[in-house]
Amino acid sequence: MLHDPPKTGKPDTSSDAARLQTGALLVIAFAVVLFLLVQARFVLISLATAIILFSLTSDVINFIARQRIGPFRIPNTLATIAAMVLIAAALLTLTSILLAQVNTVLVTTLSYAERAPSAVASLFAWLGDDSQLAISNALRSVNVSSYLRGAAGQASGITQATVLIILFVGFLFAERIWFQTKLQSLVRDPVQAERVGKIIQSIIHRVNYYLLVKTVISAITGAMIFVLARVFNIELAVSIGIITFVLNFIPNVGSLVATALLVLVAHVELGDPTITLAIFLLSGMIQFVNGSIIDPMLMGHALRLSSFGIILSLAFWGAVWGIPGMFLSVPIMVMMLVVCSHVPSLRPFAVLLSREGLPETEEMLDQPIDRDLFGYDSRRD
User: Fold this and answer.
1) Would residue 2 count as lying in a domain?
2) Cα–Cα distance measured from residue 185 to residue 233, given in angstroms and rounded to the nearest whole number
3) Is residue 157 domain-shared with residue 260, that is, in the same domain?
4) What is the mean pLDDT of residues 329-353?
5) pLDDT in tens, 213-254
6) What average pLDDT does the structure give for the chain?
7) What is the pLDDT at residue 18?
């Protein structure tokens, strides 16, 4: 009787090859996406900003539509047009103010160019005369005018980005009424479409709440820094206050840069180390109280973001999109957290991105959002 020869144990190479191929495809896909993010950064930054601004419009439109002219309510169409006009006017006004202040800072910086190296080098006098002289010579070798021309060129691009953002928001307004129909046609499952809609609403609500709190805290911080600079008769008090307001939208790093900018300007203008130290302590206290105590207290559990995750997101988007990426890093991270929370295969990433390792659950998704940003109870309608 013939017997088959015994089978020798051979390693299963097919599964290993498949995993290797999948890993290689993921690396290639990531490289392609990263390349596109860098090459199309101007359009993508404008689009991302437009989407975030558009997410604010639902509450704004509803707020305008609730207003009454005598016995009549404002029609939803008129409220939509009014919201669009308000957003465009706010963007153009903010851009013009920001450009004016940047121009003021650039012009003043040129007037400080001669005395700034000596003033900054004097901060390192405790290292010895040789070190102070070396730092002063190194600062004088910097071609300030070339950097200022580059900064002016980048500032001029803000106007182009603002116009593009307004156009994007306008087209999003035009497509707003068809969004639910498109979502149902895309998903082809009414239950799943409703679930996707709830996820989108959760993202919008969290991003809106973050922007509202951050705007209030940044405005208060900028006003306090302005008052502090005005008390010490600093020439650029208004510009520093506005720049502080803008920089505070960059998590963690923005407040440090704003404080360093105030201290540097104060020391160059006043030249008194004692006053500079007092300004540093007072501005640091303002930033710490508003950013580390009041801000987290108002945010509460609305974001549930890991501090380490925020730093990683800030570093990544800053490297890819520069300073605009830093401003957009937290809203993008909020979107990723909510999406990963409701995709089973991506939930481990949501656990890592969340603050306590407790991302949003399905039960939280089913809870209705009772109030909008203006405190209106949505269940009344």
Assistant:
1) no
2) 62
3) no
4) 84
5) 888 899 999 999 999 999 988 888 888 898 899 889 888 888
6) 78
7) 77
The residues, ordered by sequence, that sit 6+ positions from 59 with a Cβ below 8 Å of its Cβ are 208, 372, 373, 374
| Domain identity same for 196 and 156 | no
Domain that holds residue 139: 39-178
User: How many C-beta atoms surround the C-beta of residue 173 within 10 A?
Assistant: 17
- Spatial distance between the Cα atoms of 27 and 18, rounded to a whole number of angstroms: 14
Count of beta carbons in the 10 Å neighbourhood of residue 29: 10
Q: Which residues of 104-120 are buried (b: 16+ CB within 10 A; e: fewer)?
A: ebeebbeebbeebbebb
DSSP state of 142: S
Mean pLDDT of 148-153: 61
Q: What is the DSSP string of 44-107?
A: HHHHHHHHHHHHTHHHHHHHHHT-EETTEEPPHHHHHHHHHHHHHHHHHHHHHHHHHHHHHHHH
Whether residue 75 sits in one domain with residue 55 = yes
d(CA 127, CA 123): 9
Residue 116 dihedral angles phi and psi, to the nearest 5°: -60, -45
**pLDDT of amino acid 356:** 73
- Residue pair 148/106 in contact (Cβ under 8 Å)? The answer is yes
Per residue in 95-104, pLDDT (tens digit) is: 888 777 777 7
How many domains does the structure of the chain reveal? 2
Contact 178, 185 (CB under 8 A): no
Q: Which token pair is 133?
A: 């002289």
C-beta pairs of 140-144 under 8 Å, 24+ apart in sequence? 144/109, 144/110, 144/113
Shared domain for 101 and 203, answered yes or no, is no
Query: Sign (positive/negative) of CA torsion 85, 91, 92, 93?
Result: positive
Tokens of 238: 């208004």
Contact between residue 239 and residue 88 where contact means Cβ atoms under 8 Å apart: no
Instruction: Decide if 4 is inside a domain.
Output: no
Say yes or no: 215 and 141 in one domain.
Answer: no
Measured at the alpha carbon of residue 332, what is the angle toward residues 326 and 336, in degrees to the nearest 5? 140
Query: CA-to-CA distance for 227 and 328, rounded, in angstroms?
Result: 28
Q: What's the full length of the chain, in residues? A: 381
52-71: average pLDDT = 74
